[in-house]
Write a structure and sequence with these properties.
By secondary structure, this protein is mainly β. 2% of the residues lie in helices and 18% in strands. Strands 6, 8, 9 and 10 form a four-stranded antiparallel sheet that branches. Strands 2-1-7 form a three-stranded mixed sheet, with no helix packed on it. Strand 1 and strand 2 form a beta hairpin. It starts with 72 loop residues before the first strand and ends in a 40-residue tail after the last strand.
């Protein structure tokens, strides 16, 4: 396993901003139709130990499928207005879900939810910068892939973010929030109202629709 970088960012607390809309947030979406209810899946049961520089994947752990996008790096950093966030190697901001659990770590975002909120998957070897390795672990999802956890919370990207650095997923459904390097919810900058998630992508589409008629609760 490659040596993980261990640079911990110590940041002073930012003053909370009132009625702060996410970068690129379109207020028109707040008038979207009521969300479609989606039953939460049973929590994933198999939990991997906290990641460390010396930990090795179990011998019987199957490698992820070749077409699965892996998160190769976690970067703790500060961005304008939001403050402390964690991004992947390409700069996409990561989120946590209130309907998940950190003790034990488990993910309840599957199927269509996971199409809108792709889990940050790993082969067990993410490089770390600005995130302490004692905060990072993995949880085995229902499909056998391993998802990164920060502070025990599974983390995700959001297909409603159209470019790295955006955080349009902040506050979506009142359950999705930008994650900070300790695994806590970053509540520094919240949108006015409760944004709806974009719809799952159609077959052959790489992103979700922003159409107002598809307001999903996840």
């Amino acid at each position: 396993m490659a040596q993980m970088k261990r640079t911990v960012i110590v940041a002073s607390a930012m003053v909370a901003l009132t009625a702060c809309a996410p970068a690129g947030y379109d207020g028109a979406n707040s008038s979207a139709a009521e969300p479609v209810a989606v039953a939460a899946a049973e929590p994933t049961a198999a939990v991997e130990p906290e990641a460390s520089a010396s930990a090795e994947a179990p011998a019987d752990q199957a490698p992820p499928p070749a077409d699965v996008r892996l998160t190769d790096e976690l970067v703790g950093k500060k961005v304008a207005r939001m403050g402390n966030v964690v991004t992947d190697q390409d700069g996409w901001i990561l989120y946590r879900f209130d309907k998940d659990s950190d003790d034990p770590p488990s993910s309840n975002c599957v199927d269509k939810c996971a199409q809108v909120w792709p889990p940050a998957l790993t082969d067990g070897n993410p490089q770390l910068e600005g995130v302490s390795d004692d905060k990072v672990g993995t949880v085995t999802r229902q499909d056998g892939t391993r998802q990164i956890t920060i502070g025990g919370w599974p983390v995700y990207r959001y297909i409603g973010d159209k470019k790295p650095g955006q955080w349009k997923g902040q506050g979506v459904g009142g359950t999705w929030f930008v994650v900070d390097p300790n695994g806590k919810k970053n509540l520094t900058c919240l949108p006015t109202g409760t944004p709806k998630a974009v719809a799952p992508p159609a077959a052959g589409d790489s992103g979700g629709s922003d159409a107002g008629g598809s307001g999903y609760s996840y």
